[in-house]
Amino acid sequence: MSTITWRKSATKDVRPFFGTATLESSVELAEIRLYEDGPFMTDTAHAVEPSAAQPLDIVIRPNLALPADMPMAKSDLVLAVTAVQPFMKKTIVVYTHKLSETVHDEIAISSDIVDKLGGGSNVTIEVALCLGKQQAKKPGSPFLLGHWLSKKSFTIKAPKLAEDFPIQPMTDDDWKNIGYPAKTFYSVQYIGGFNEPVAKDSHFAKVYIHADVHKKLTLESAQRLAKPIMASLAAEITGHIIAASFGEWEGVDEPTPNSPLDAFLKRIGRVDPSLTFEKFKEHAKEPGMPRLKALLHADQQSVRSVAEG
Fold it and tell me: Does residue 35 sit within a domain?
């Protein structure tokens, strides 16, 4: 008797709605614009550098392409645009509009929304054709309010080290179980590989943060507090990783291409263009790394975050 072995070849959202399959590509041609006067693009992955001189000015063009023979009434469908911050597990509904009415050609994501989601350093904009009202259950057809029939996601990320490792919320008991005080704010576990080429699905560090703090950072009402805390945390966490990994790259002449260290030096070079790798190593040797931490906070715009908070 032969044995069939199944192997996963690709990840894909599978929708059980064969009755509305002709709608699956309805938002496939959606486009995004990141900056004022910038081009509209169909690409779904975008790396951006936060800049006070050129703030994000995100606009979506849905470019709806509906089939001539609609499988269900337009009055039952809505176009929805949402903005998602994965780290904070926070979603903001930007736009919803019935398909039975004229859908806007362009949909702007306001700067207020971008700020509430951390400034746009790690945001996913989703354009989706959804069910706008509850339906009777029928095989192959959507029935729950919000069921999406077609979706396109645009990811916007900045090359920040804080995005290269997982964040794990910890309760009082979780902290005590690993030998820490119950009210520990955060801790960084350096795994290794800061000066090695980045491997897919691998992490060079893991960050633990108290669950109460993590929850507070996700609250809509706490964003004035969250922004400066997140900026300061990102700088301090990076400092921990540099200190923990220093022995791995102290003796090399230059960072390994495509390593987190290489990416970080290029980023920090925007703050101090005169910073050489040798000077960077000298800063890392200083007790407490005062000058290096100053660069880290400048990179994260910590002062601006506090002042504008």
Answer: yes
